[in-house]
Write a structure and sequence with these properties.
six-stranded antiparallel barrel
């Protein structure tokens, strides 16, 4: 920041002289170019005779036209040898005139008094000329004003027709030459000082030193490299901006078959169906509006349809069942609104139970997610997580963050979660064909008070709901209230959240191998996943 309010008091602090103070450059202290004659105090004896043998001869006609004297007293002095009226004047023969009477002109205190003379155009003195200055030193023919001690010296020119030599300061041309010389010297001194300050101490300068030209190369990359994968996938990734009046959101998505775009439900939750409140920007920076085709809050997936795709290619969908921990992956999206951002990492875990949204909310999502350390930030939601072949294996949906007690970090900390693409494929198909997605269920109620290993089926009726749905998938598989489910498809369960996520990640009709305990004995059964009764999609608040 700079302080631009400098007060006037700074002038004195910096050594500036206020206007009108004696400084030799003008104002009250400026010295006149012309010399003024000294005047004697009134009533004192005349000065000793002055040698005028070298003074130029002037008569009364030597005064220029327009010459006058400020402070002239009333009365007349002797002019051309004749005495005139007027107290306190010397006549022009060098005799002392009578002293002034009381109240006459002069300084009765005896202090030296000076009149101020103004000299105008030199020349003759026609007509009635004014009298010469009173009490001047040196009178009579040939008189000339003597130089004032300490004054600027005689004036070069003519006075009364005769040459008078007066010293002056340097001429303008001389001053200009001196100024140029001073400027050149200052510039040379500055350049030399800069050289002394910037030259290397070891004098390793080499005027012939060159680094050479940049090597020739190619921008093409191997298809399996990160750059190759990015160049393949980027044209199919879009950025979404939703403006719902009182709320707005941004996110990412990718183009699939038929010109549809898959994204997260929480990205477009504020937009109403069939209402073009969504703007989509493609990788070529062309934009178009879009509307919601269908959304599924439980899986946090949605499908939108843009009005135009501008020839963008559809992305290839992979198989998430073939993903293993350690596989290289690339995440693409618009984190924090930065479109076309590419980050890379590996698959760091599988079947990670993740709850997205608010607990006990209708939009709460349970994911059996793919965990990755590829940087994912707000705005990446809905973008693709692809493998080394450029195929989508997951939909980036959530990130883990540190709590406020640990600093409130909300960006990527290396824990990102993606919805497996096999689950996203099924939900997208159902949303496009029917407008809603089926809810996977096995028909049990979990005992939340159980603290042991695995998940225990509740033993009591709660809020009118039976622990096991009659004739539901679990009932048909032989499960009973109080049974403890310890493993699903070979995955050991840690809690009920993980069981929910695993079930919701499967499609209705899929079979699960369930290992459970009853009365201290371990048993195994197969459960066919069913579908919950269709429910209307909740409208955005």
């Amino acid at each position: 920041m700079t302080d631009e309010n400098r007060g006037h008091e700074a002038d004195d602090a910096e050594g500036r002289t206020p206007s009108g103070q004696p400084d030799g450059r003008g104002g009250a202290g400026a010295t006149s170019e012309f010399s003024r004659p000294d005047f004697l105090p009134a009533g004192q004896p005349p000065p000793p005779p002055v040698d005028r043998s070298h003074a130029p001869s002037h008569g009364p006609q030597g005064y220029g036209e327009g010459w006058s004297q400020l402070g002239e007293p009333p009365g007349r002095a002797r002019w051309s040898g004749q005495e005139q009226e007027g107290p306190g004047y010397e006549d022009w023969t060098g005799r002392q005139a009578p002293p002034p009477a009381s109240g006459g002109w002069g300084d009765p205190s005896g202090r030296t008094h000076r009149d101020t003379a103004i000299f105008a155009t030199p020349g003759g003195l026609p007509g009635n000329q004014p009298p010469p200055p009173s009490r001047a030193q040196g009178l009579g023919p040939g008189w000339a004003p003597p130089p004032v001690p300490g004054g600027p010296g005689p004036y070069d020119g003519t006075f009364g027709g005769r040459a008078v030599t007066e010293r002056r300061g340097p001429r303008t041309g001389t001053l200009a030459v001196l100024a140029v010389l001073i400027a050149l010297l200052a510039s040379a001194a500055g350049s030399f000082g800069t050289y002394l300050l910037t030259r290397p101490g070891n004098s390793d300068l080499d005027p012939s030193y060159r680094l050479g030209t940049a090597p020739s190369g190619s921008n093409s990359r191997a298809p399996e490299s990160i750059a190759g994968v990015a160049s393949k996938v980027l044209p199919s990734v879009v950025s979404l901006s939703v403006n719902a009046g009182t709320s707005s959101s941004t996110g990412s998505g990718f183009l699939i078959k038929g010109g549809y775009i898959v994204t997260n439900n929480h990205v477009v939750a504020g937009a109403e169906p069939n209402n073009s409140q969504i703007q989509i920007q493609f990788s070529n920076r062309k934009s178009t509006s879009a509307h919601v085709v269908g959304r599924d809050p439980e899986s946090d997936l949605a499908v939108v349809k843009p009005d135009e795709t501008f020839g963008a290619p559809e992305i290839a969908l992979g198989n998430s069942d073939n993903v293993v921990v350690g596989d290289p992956v690339v995440a693409i999206g618009s984190p924090l609104g930065l479109t076309g951002t590419v980050t890379s990492g590996i698959v760091s875990a599988l079947n990670r139970p993740v709850q997205a949204g608010e607990e006990n909310s209708t939009d709460t999502t349970w994911l059996s997610a793919i965990q990755t350390d590829a940087a994912i930030n707000p705005g990446n939601s809905g973008g693709p997580l692809v493998n080394a072949a450029g195929e989508v294996i997951g939909v980036n949906s959530a990130i883990a963050t540190l709590g406020r007690s640990l600093g409130g970090q909300s960006g990527s900390i290396g824990l990102g979660f993606a919805i497996p693409v096999n689950h996203a494929r099924r939900v997208a198909e159902e949303l496009i064909t029917t407008g809603s997605a089926k809810k996977s269920r096995i028909g049990i109620t979990i005992d939340q008070s159980y603290q042991g290993t695995g998940v225990r089926i509740d033993t009591e009726v709660r809020s009118g709901t039976q622990p096991i749905e009659p004739k539901g998938p679990a009932d048909k598989a032989g499960l009973k209230p109080g049974d403890i489910i310890v493993e699903i498809n070979g995955t050991v369960l840690q809690d009920g959240y993980e069981l929910i996520a695993l079930i919701r990640n499967k499609a209705p009709g899929e079979k699960l191998t369930v290992k459970f305990q009853r009365g201290g004995q371990e048993k195994t059964t197969v459960v066919t996943i069913g579908a919950a009764s269709p429910q209307p999609t909740p409208s955005p608040s």
